[in-house]
Specification:
Strand content: 25-35%
Order of helices and strands: EHEHEHEHEHEHEEEHEEEHHHEEEHEHEE
Radius of gyration: 27 Å
Number of strands: 18
CATH architecture of the largest domain: 3-Layer(aba) Sandwich
Bound molecules: S-adenosylmethionine
Protein name: Precorrin-6A synthase (Deacetylating)
Helix content: 25-40%
Keywords: Cobalamin biosynthesis, Methyltransferase, S-adenosyl-L-methionine, Transferase
Pathway: Cofactor biosynthesis; adenosylcobalamin biosynthesis
Oligomer: single chain
Largest sheet: 8 strands, mixed
GO molecular function: acyltransferase activity, transferring groups other than amino-acyl groups; precorrin-6A synthase (deacetylating) activity
Pfam families: Acetyltransf_3, TP_methylase
Number of helices: 12
Length: 459
């Protein structure tokens, strides 16, 4: 009957790297619960078994119960909210499956153990799942003790292998996932450690930050361990090649890397012009009127920007008549969150509230004297004529006046671009005048601009 649950960090799979405390804990466990993943690779299962074989005395009886891991569904393509819900549902299914094992323990089986790869505190759900199991037992009147034994994590081993500290003197370290890196990266973060990155996301930073130092490591702690170090732009192709070859050989890869700004000290956070920052993009609350939804533009939105830019209407009213390339769209969208954090430009995606499909883009730029925001927008052809622009403008302008120090919003369009002016007026903007020869045309001539304004409403 259950009396104790132990969460034991076993490092990167080499029995030599299991701490003495963890080794002693292993020898107290009656039943190990092990998740059997559908896509599990044999090397990891074998590494876990090798740890048990090496460290649990031969006369110590224990059993291993394999529990088929509930399916979690693909993470790629999910937004943060859907990703979070997917993970929570998956946890709940795991708790249920493990509870069944605990309920079926024999009388003499009192200690249950979970073997956790690396350190249980880092990107691992076992502690949360054990908390739920302990709570469930308490609700049934069974008091269960539990503890967590630390292990050597992938970042700790990466730093040791490269013979570097993870941080510079007095500076921060930011640990994140590949999924978040591109939108999140900023020189002010200090050193950045990236885990759970199936796509080598740092490749997207090469254009903007070629001089970053990359400390990369895969299969750390195993005989296949491989390390690469160098200037990001110089070594990215080598890392790509090593990853591809290793993945083909093993069928899987686990890698971790550190990105470090070269030189002595990290840049101060959000270096750049001293505009008041826009509210933190990470705490964005859904903005919708039921027909359109507006949210910050992120790296995943490049197809919307491409579709909005490359059509006859947009090219006709644009400045140079040149279509946007996919690389440019990817670069611009990848920069969007960083620009937002610098406080200069807030870029948004206009989405169809029903389907979630990207319908257009909108931006607010701080320009000219303090307190002025200039608005630009465009809707992809399939969504034109449905009032999306004025709806999105209304939502964003309301947000700007509620959450920033901007006092006056301005926008303009070329004389003749009637649809743009109508959308502005529907959103409450007032036509102000005509600015002669202000906007360039693709043929080298210049057009007059019709200008509009919207003032912060009186409090
Ligand atoms: C689910 S997380 C588990 C992290 C683990 N709890 C730790 O403390 O490192 C899996 C991620 O850890 C990193 N990782 C785990 N084992 C690794 C290894 N042997 N070499 C390099 N990175 C590894 C990879 O970034 C991988 O995507």
């Amino acid at each position: 009957m259950i009396g104790r649950i132990r969460v034991i960090g076993i490092g990167m799979g080499d029995p030599d790297q299991v701490t003495g405390e963890a080794a002693r804990a292993l020898a107290t466990v009656d039943v190990f619960i092990v998740a059997r993943k559908a896509d599990a690779h044999g090397d990891l299962v074998a590494a876990r078994q090798a740890v048990c074989d090496a460290l649990i005395p031969a006369d110590r009886a224990y059993r291993v119960v394999e529990v088929t891991d509930p399916r979690r569904g693909p993470d790629a393509g999910r937004d943060t909210a859907a990703y979070g819900k997917g993970v929570r549902d998956w946890h709940a299914a795991r708790v249920k499956a493990y509870a069944e094992v605990i309920d079926g323990l024999a009388e003499h089986e009192t200690t249950v153990g979970f073997l956790v790869w690396g350190d249980p505190a880092l990107y691992d759900s076992t502690i949360r799942i054990v908390d739920a199991l302990v709570e469930r037992c308490a609700m049934q009147g069974r008091m269960v003790d539990h503890d967590v034994i630390a292990g050597i994590s992938a970042p700790a081993l990466l730093a040791a292998r490269h013979r570097i500290p993870l941080n510079r003197i007095g500076a921060p370290v930011h640990i994140t996932t590949g999924r978040r890196l591109v939108d999140e990266f900023d020189l002010g973060l200090g050193d950045v450690v990236v885990m759970l990155d199936g796509h080598l996301s740092c490749a997207s930073l090469v254009d903007s930050f070629p001089d970053l130092e990359l400390y990369w490591g895969a299969y750390l702690g195993s005989v296949d361990e491989v390390l690469v170090h160098g200037r990001l732009a110089d070594v990215i192709e080598e890392v790509r090649r090593v990853r591809t070859e290793a993945r083909a050989r093993h069928g899987w890869i686990m890698d971790t890397y550190l990105l470090r700004q070269p030189g002595d000290a990290p840049a101060p956070a959000h270096a750049g012009p001293s505009f008041m920052a826009f509210p933190d993009v990470a705490s964005w609350e859904p903005l919708t009127d039921g027909v359109v939804t507006v949210r910050p533009l992120t790296a995943a939105d490049w197809p919307v920007l491409l579709a909005e830019s490359n059509n006859d209407e947009s090219l006709k009213w644009g400045f140079d008549g040149r279509p946007l390339t996919e690389a440019e769209a990817r670069h611009k969208t990848a920069e969007a969150v960083r620009e937002w954090r610098r406080g200069r430009v807030a870029r948004f995606v206009i989405a169809d509230a029903d389907s979630g499909a990207g319908a257009g883009v909108l931006m607010v730029i701080r320009m000219g004297p303090p307190g002025i925001g200039v608005v630009g927008y465009g809707v992809v052809p399939d969504f034109r004529g449905r009032g999306f622009t004025s709806r999105a403008l209304t939502l964003v302008c309301g947000w700007v006046f509620a959450h920033t120090d901007i006092q006056r919003l301005e926008l303009g369009h070329k004389v003749g671009n009637v649809a743009s002016g109508k959308a502005a007026e529907r959103a409450g903007f007032t036509r102000e005048g005509v600015l002669v020869g202000r906007l360039p045309n693709p043929d080298g001539t210049r057009s007059d601009e019709v200008s509009y304004f919207l003032l912060r409403p009186e409090a």
